[in-house]
Amino acid sequence: MGLLIRSIAFALLFFFSVGLAQDAPPEPQSADIFSRIPSPRFLESGERRVVDIVISNPGKETNFYTLSIERKPQGWIARVDPRNIDLPPDEAAPVHVTLIPKSGPPSFTEQMTQYDVVIKAEDKEAKPFYGTLPIYLKPGYRDLLTFFGIPALIGFAAIGMGEWLRRRDYFKVGGLFVMGGGILTVVSVTAVLGILVL
User: Fold this and answer.
1) Alpha-carbon separation of residue 138 from 36, 74, 106, 122, 124 (angstroms)
2) Would the keyword Transmembrane helix be found if you checked this record's keyword annotation (predicted)?
3) Where are the domains of the chain?
4) What pLDDT sits at residue 93?
């Protein structure tokens, strides 16, 4: 009889503990903290862009988050603002991520690559959560002008100078100017068209 009572008591305790475990709230995940991250953004090389994300507190008590940039592409500048934020339960707040990609027109491979900027949020217990902001890079018009537009203008100027010299019977020197300016112009214009089209 005593064994039966002990068995019943053990079974009741087991089912009670299982019920408590099922009723326990699940641990928040990174997707719960970074509740809104925009779809992939297209940034021009050297462009300064501010992207807004949303941080949430899915818990039942006020939490304190410390924000930082965990990972960014080499040569990029990235900053998160604000760095610290207090959130009441079930509340959300916007966070601004400032991005400045490296200068210089990207290659075809770089334009096809997805760059991930990883933002880290640590709660008051120093538990880390991560959100990933996907970025694609495209050539900026300022970079195109600097790296290809100016050489193309120099090429046209050289062609004009060569024609001017040839009209004054300096055929050999004028021909060199025309040939060099033509090569520089063709290479510059072809590079710009290739970057823009591809």
Assistant:
1) 24, 16, 7, 32, 39
2) yes
3) 30-139, 142-197
4) 92
